[in-house]
From TrEMBL:
PROSITE patterns: AA_TRANSFER_CLASS_2. Residues 38-52 have a biased composition (Pro residues). Its EC number is 2.3.1.50. Its cofactor is pyridoxal 5'-phosphate. This is serine C-palmitoyltransferase. Keywords: Pyridoxal phosphate, Transferase. It catalyses: L-serine + hexadecanoyl-CoA + H(+) = 3-oxosphinganine + CO2 + CoA. Residues 23-33 have a biased composition (Polar residues). Residues 312-671 form the Aminotransferase class I/classII large domain. It is an enzyme of class 2 (transferase). Belongs to the class-II pyridoxal-phosphate-dependent aminotransferase family. It comes from Discostella pseudostelligera.
Length: 689
């Protein structure tokens, strides 16, 4: 271990900074990652060309190989065939040819045309097929348990998808997790009581003296904040102060680069025991030269062009699924920057007024044809799309049946609609059928009149579970009972299916059977905003009635161009194979990473072919420890705790990208293997982790 002489000066630093300081420079230290610094190596990424950095199946430039591999890997749909033929046909354009040459050159130089996963390809494809057949086609496999709970024979109609990743929290983890929260809450209350008794503390606000002294001019008794009911809810206030602040360095990390595979995370410090965090800025802000030196010698140390200290990390947390943040200069820059020549960055108006440009209409036409609907409406925020479209579609007298793990934007939209809300067990079509049948039999409460409309809301990929939707069965149940289907494809559009058309394509469901297709451009498309696609009649109505569209400034034309450019790449309309390479790379990278994490004995949630990989941490203390250990090792990860997930279900969530290379993923896996040992996370192997 290295000697660290910085204990005193460490005190004001955040735990992250402190962990950097554990890397205090010492000649005797080795260059391994055991808290030991190494001189900063020339970053292999700093000069990396802005190119698709992901993998490909088979030979890169060979269309035949791509289609063969795609055919073996996935079900070849008519849409896939159509897309690949348009891909082959689109080579006329000179500019496109130039780009294709550039990208191929870059790819060949990185990969030499090989399949980077050749050694594990067979196993990866088998695992993917296993999950798909269990979860999408619902084949009865030998390993699938029989259903024998309360709905009995109901379940035989719609076999509950039993994801291969279904993990129960171990009894030891459950007990220690509860214990962890008890200790944190009791300690927090003791500190609050002590602060009140001694009238001193980080969060103690002294009372004004209005009760005993006359008011100075201009002051009113009501200026005494103690006379008000607290604006912030007391439990949430307590939770923020005594639990969240302890680990807030793990959240809201500011970045100073694109959210590409390698990301620059700005270094932060805290001068008040993590109550507030500040960006460290330049190294000269540090008074102690030794600390400054320790930063400089850190393995992942770097600076922004204006000299601010950053950590160069492998990005495992952004929704950069198709890697547009990595190759933006090649794929989108020209058109996006060009759009600024003719159009402003904001149109300064809502769609109802002067907020529609040709680019808005182009995005809508492309989206509609991409997802297989007659028309689409684009809104400037994905969250808003759910929060304002659902209330436009439903009202009092209607029933919304929502998956219990649906995103908060859906929950907000459902609550705002005034409709009655029921939830069904996550991804469980049998339970959905049970709820629908009951709702139809009993009708509306009190009056017993039939529901005007029933809307079933599900997601393509569940963002905290990494699981895809049991869409075929959901659609079958909804058809049987005459309920409308609303599918949120925020994470699945562009990321799932042979041509990126999302959950319908992946699960083989006809888009005509899903009444409302919703999605966002913030994930796979590197843009902003959301869309809703449906029949022309419905979209026309939504265009008029939806408050989020009619009364909100419309999407920036620059963002529209980003969306159009990324769609052209995905659909192969730019005349290159970049889109299909990205889709293949995303699938390969995701499946490889999932396979290796599972091999490590971690509790990994979700399905193969999904780019989201939650890894269970359970214990609240492991949330911060995991995040800090990863940051120390140059991995930027997202950790999630209560209330975003149930209290026992804290997790880390990896988002894999087409922009990752196998080497990067291998490095991450090596580091994660160490962290898993350190934090005892191998719950699939031992009840104690
Ligand atoms: C399922 C789902 N729907 C909607 C949204 C909101 O999308 P946006 O972030 O684009 O506003 C998200 C965000 O991650 C999501 O996960």
């Amino acid at each position: 271990m290295c000697n660290t002489n910085t204990t005193k000066s460490k005190q004001y630093l955040s735990p992250v900074a402190a962990s950097t300081l554990a890397n205090t420079y010492d000649d005797s230290c080795s260059s391994d990652n055991d808290g030991v610094p190494t001189p900063l190596p020339a970053s292999p990424h700093s000069s990396a060309p802005p190119s698709p950095r992901g993998s490909v199946i088979g030979s890169l430039g060979d269309n035949a190989n791509i289609s063969t591999a795609t055919a073996t890997a996935t079900t070849t749909t008519a849409a896939a065939k159509k897309a690949s033929s348009s891909l082959l046909a689109a080579h006329d354009d000179d500019d496109a040819r130039g780009r294709l040459r550039l990208v191929s050159k870059i790819n060949y130089s990185r990969r030499e045309g090989d399949d980077p996963y050749a050694d594990v390809r067979e196993r990866m494809e088998a695992l993917s097929l296993r999950d798909k057949s269990r979860h999408v086609y619902h084949c009865q496999s030998e390993t699938q348990p029989q259903d024998d709970d309360d709905e009995g024979s109901e379940k035989n109609n719609f076999m509950v998808a039993t994801p291969s990743s279904h993990h129960e929290i171990t009894i030891f983890a459950a007990i220690t997790t509860y214990l962890g929260y008890v200790v944190l809450i009791v300690t927090g209350h003791i500190r609050d009581v002590c602060a009140n008794i001694f009238r001193k503390g980080r969060y103690f606000r002294s009372q004004s003296t209005t009760a005993t002294t006359p008011n100075p001019p201009g002051h009113y008794p009501s200026d005494d904040f103690t006379k008000y009911a607290p604006l912030l809810k007391s439990w949430e206030n307590f939770y923020t102060r005594r639990l969240y602040h302890r680990i807030q360095d793990c959240f809201n990390r500011p970045i100073a680069s694109r959210p590409s595979a390698i990301i620059s995370v700005l270094e932060r410090v805290s001068f008040d025991g993590n109550k507030t965090m500040s960006v460290l800025g330049k190294l000269s802000n540090l008074e102690d030269e030794k600390i400054a030196l320790s930063y400089q010698m850190g393995q992942h140390y770097d600076t922004t062009p204006d000299g601010r200290v950053v950590r160069k990390c492998l990005n495992l947390g952004s929704y950069n699924y198709l890697g547009f943040a990595d190759d933006w200069d090649v794929t989108c820059r020209k058109d996006v920057m060009g759009s600024l020549d003719n159009l402003p960055s904001s149109v300064g108006s809502s769609r109802l007024e002067f907020g529609t440009t040709t680019l808005h209409r182009r995005v809508e036409t492309i989206v509609a044809s991409f997802v297989g609907k007659e028309d689409a409406l684009v809104l400037n925020m994905g969250f808003n799309t759910n929060a304002t479209i659902i209330p436009t579609l439903t009202a009092r007298g209607d029933l919304i049946v929502s998956d219990e793990l649906n995103h908060t934007s859906i929950v907000n939209g459902a609550r705002a609609s005034g409709a009655a809300i029921r939830t069904f067990r996550h991804n469980d079509a049998s339970n959905l059928e049970f709820i629908l049948r009951e709702a139809i039999v009993y009708g509306q409460p009190r009056t017993r009149r039939p529901w005007n409309r029933i809307l079933v809301v599900v997601e393509g990929i569940y963002s905290m579970e990494g699981e895809y939707c049991n869409l075929r069965n959901v659609v079958t149940v909804c058809k049987k009972y005459g309920a409308y289907v609303y599918l949120d494809e925020a994470h699945s559009i562009g990321a799932m299916g042979p041509t990126g058309r999302g959950c319908c394509e992946y699960t083989g469901v006809d888009p005509a059977d899903v009444d409302i297709l919703m999605g966002t451009f913030t994930k796979s498309f590197g843009g902003m905003g959301g869309y809703v696609a449906a029949d022309r009649r419905i979209i026309a109505e939504l265009r008029r009635e939806c408050a989020g569209s009619a009364y909100h400034n419309s999407l920036s034309p620059v963002v529209c161009q980003q969306i159009i450019s990324s769609f052209q790449v995905i659909m192969g309309k730019d005349g290159t194979l970049i889109g299909s390479q990205k889709l293949n790379a995303l699938r390969d990278n995701s499946n490889y990473f999932r396979m290796r994490l599972t091999d490590m004995g971690l509790h990994v949630l979700g399905n193969y072919d999904s780019p989201i990989m939650p890894v269970m941490l359970y214990n609240p203390t492991k949330i911060a420890a995991f995040s800090r250990e990863c940051l120390k090792r140059g991995l930027a990860v997202v950790v999630v705790g209560f209330p975003a997930v149930p209290i026992l279900m804290s997790r880390a969530r990896f988002c894999i990208s087409a922009g990752h290379t196998r080497e990067e993923l291998d490095r991450a896996l090596k580091e994660l293997d160490e962290v898993a040992d350190l934090l005892k996370l191998r719950y699939a192997r031992s009840t104690f982790g």
